[in-house]
């Protein structure tokens, strides 16, 4: 709990039972005295694809998250380093990391002027776990340990039994099923953002459209032109509106890194979400001080469909995973600071001490030899070659990696691989319906703790693309979630990683860097936030 305290926290009170936190403000633009600001405070931000939804409970990936964080706000936010700081909650108390009381700001308001109340969170969290809504973010309430969340999602209990209560208009009580020491850090996740009940009920599926949507974030949605732009302007009712500097934020969806880079060079974008890795060294020379590649809390991986042949055979999955040369991909194909992913959980994960993976103990030639033996045991060889499809969402980087991996599989295993690329929404549809053999995927941590990655392969997780189900794995995660001893919890996590290696529902490939381009006059971007949480309210434009 104390680890989340940012510099500038004013008071910490400790008692035998309760921990009370009063944490300094974060999220607003921190403009140094004497700074000369541009007269025009408008910014254009690149996102990698058209958002599938702007409903916080339906967020699937980064294209949605970057926008939703501007339009809504949860109980807590993150500062530039990823520490938890107050959002709608001005302060909170904890009893043994299991019962939490949140004191909401009385000046927190929705974009239509309505007050944000404790009942808004009760409604929103019940809506999240209601199985009739089938919301993609429901799993997060269970992972957070909110009492009865899993039972409600499974249809075994009514939503009224969820462990969240409005004590009064501005005080929220949350009861967890077990102690969760990092619970506060989970509250910055978009799944737990509140939504405006009257708006959701009035407009139904159309509630997030411009003109309908009511949010409680620093910005409001003014315009949306699908596959072209989303335009947001400051929310005058936002509790910290006085510290919002930008007057307009435009999000532009571009799924081709080269196209985004060209538009950045042409002056059409102020921030990109990525750039072509093969241009890294050229861009460093061309754009000094504008190229950033810090480590990111994220892993790029391939998921195998465990529900249909040929990847329902663990020997096939192991062979495919072993024969991916992760070092070549990270250092040669990418080459901008990425690291090979010998496990699912990235090295920058807070508090995680990884055991050395077996993949690191053999040369690639030795791994390829083992892979051949596994594939032969599964019944494949020169006269009966393995045939499969590899699906990825349209992106130049994804394409290069897919071509390289298909070549590795052909060379090492004689596999015949059909590459299939699809636009984001079609890709998501096929991913959700299980219409693939192997699929490109990535996971950016929702919070900085190993369970944000490992829980993804739990049998009930909606993000479990491979549909992997293993009772021993589930039991390890359950034990880890209740374990208050950090050393023992880390041992559980390493055992879970070993199951991932031996069962191979996925093949982790590389650990991300947060590669992006940022104009020199854009200030306030939290480049060192490992989760890449960047609120537009933090940003401002220098005179240039």
Largest β-sheet summary: 6 strands, antiparallel
Computed over alpha carbons, the radius of gyration is 23 Å
How much is the average pLDDT?
A: 92
The portion of residues forming beta strands comes to 15-25%
Gist?
The protein is an alpha+beta fold.
Features:
544 residues; alpha+beta; 6-stranded mixed beta sheet; 22 strands; 28% helix; disordered N terminus
What is the topological layout?
Elements: E1 11-14, E2 18-22, E3 42-47, H1 62-71, E4 76-78, E5 84-86, E6 89-95, E7 99-104, H2 118-129, H3 139-143, H4 149-153, E8 164-168, E9 171-175, H5 183-186, H6 197-203, E10 219-225, E11 229-234, E12 248-253, H7 257-265, H8 280-286, E13 291-292, E14 295-304, H9 314-322, H10 326-334, E15 339-340, H11 364-377, E16 387-393, H12 396-413, E17 416-422, H13 424-433, E18 438-444, H14 451-454, H15 471-482, H16 486-503, E19 506-513, E20 516-517, E21 522-523, E22 540-541
Parallel strand pairs: 3-12, 16-17, 16-18
Antiparallel strand pairs: 1-2, 2-6, 4-5, 6-7, 7-9, 8-9, 10-11, 11-12, 13-20, 14-18, 14-19, 15-19, 21-22
Describe the structure in your own words.
- The chain has 544 residues and is α+β, with helices and mostly antiparallel strands.
- It has helices at 62-71, 118-129, 139-143, 149-153, 183-186, 197-203, 257-265, 280-286, 314-322, 326-334, 364-377, 396-413, 424-433, 451-454, 471-482, 486-503, and strands at residues 11-14, 18-22, 42-47, 76-78, 84-86, 89-95, 99-104, 164-168, 171-175, 219-225, 229-234, 248-253, 291-292, 295-304, 339-340, 387-393, 416-422, 438-444, 506-513, 516-517, 522-523, 540-541.
- The protein has a 6-stranded antiparallel sheet with strand order 1-2-6-7-9-8, covered by helices on one side. A 6-stranded mixed sheet has the order 15-19-14-18-16-17, with helices on both faces. It has a 4-stranded mixed sheet with strand order 3-12-11-10, with helices on one face.
- Strand 6 (89-95) and strand 7 (99-104) form a beta hairpin.
- Helix 9 (314-322) packs antiparallel against helix 11 (364-377).
């Amino acid at each position: 709990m104390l680890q989340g305290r940012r510099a500038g926290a004013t008071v910490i009170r400790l008692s035998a039972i309760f921990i009370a936190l009063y944490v300094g403000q974060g999220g607003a633009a921190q403009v140094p005295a004497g700074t000369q600001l541009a007269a025009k405070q408008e910014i254009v931000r690149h996102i990698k694809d058209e958002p599938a939804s702007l409903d916080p409970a339906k967020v699937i990936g980064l294209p949605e998250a970057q926008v939703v964080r501007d339009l809504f706000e949860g109980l807590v936010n993150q500062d530039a380093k990823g520490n938890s700081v107050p959002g709608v909650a001005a302060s909170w108390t904890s009893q043994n990391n299991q019962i939490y009381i949140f004191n909401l700001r009385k000046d927190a308001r929705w974009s239509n002027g309505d007050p944000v109340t404790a009942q808004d969170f009760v409604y929103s969290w019940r809506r999240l776990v209601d199985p009739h809504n089938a919301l993609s973010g429901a799993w997060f309430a269970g992972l957070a340990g909110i009492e009865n969340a899993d039972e409600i999602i499974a249809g075994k209990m009514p939503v009224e039994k969820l462990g969240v209560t409005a004590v009064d208009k501005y005080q929220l009580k949350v009861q967890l099923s077990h102690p969760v020491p990092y619970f506060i850090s989970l509250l910055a996740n978009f799944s737990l953002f509140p939504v405006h009940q009257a708006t959701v009920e009035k407009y139904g599926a159309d509630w997030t459209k411009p003109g309908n949507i009511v949010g409680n974030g620093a910005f409001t949605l003014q315009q949306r032109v699908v596959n072209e732009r989303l335009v947001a302007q400051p929310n005058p009712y936002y509790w910290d509106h006085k510290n919002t500097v930008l007057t307009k934020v435009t999000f532009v969806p571009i799924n081709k890194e080269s196209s985004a880079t060209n538009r950045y060079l042409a002056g059409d974008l102020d921030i990109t979400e990525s750039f072509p890795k093969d241009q890294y060294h050229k861009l460093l020379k061309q754009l000094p001080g504008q190229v950033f590649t810090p480590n990111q809390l994220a892993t790029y991986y391939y998921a195998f469909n465990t529900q249909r042949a040929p990847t329902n055979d663990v020997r096939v999955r192991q062979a495919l995973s072993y024969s991916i040369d992760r070092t070549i991909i990270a250092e040669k194909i990418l080459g901008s600071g990425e690291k090979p992913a010998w496990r699912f959980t990235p090295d920058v994960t807070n508090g995680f001490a990884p055991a050395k993976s077996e993949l690191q103990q053999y040369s690639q030639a030795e791994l390829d030899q083992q892979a051949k033996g596994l594939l032969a045991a599964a019944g494949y060889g020169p006269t009966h070659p393995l045939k499969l499809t590899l699906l990825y969402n349209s992106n130049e980087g994804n394409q290069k990696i897919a071509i390289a991996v298909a070549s590795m599989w052909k060379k090492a295993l004689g596999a015949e691989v059909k590459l299939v690329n699809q636009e984001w929404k079609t890709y998501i549809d096929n991913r959700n319906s299980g219409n693939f053999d192997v699929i490109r995927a990535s996971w950016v941590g929702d919070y900085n703790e190993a369970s944000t990655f490992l829980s993804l392969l739990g049998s009930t997780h909606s993000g479990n693309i491979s549909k992997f189900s293993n009772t021993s794995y589930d039991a390890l995660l359950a034990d880890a979630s209740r374990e208050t001893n950090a050393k023992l919890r880390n041992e559980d996590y390493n055992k879970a990683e070993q199951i991932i290696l031996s069962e191979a529902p996925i093949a982790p490939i590389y650990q991300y860097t947060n590669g992006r381009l940022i104009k020199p006059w854009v200030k306030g971007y939290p480049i060192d936030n490992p989760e890449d949480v960047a609120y537009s309210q933090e940003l401002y434009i220098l005179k240039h």
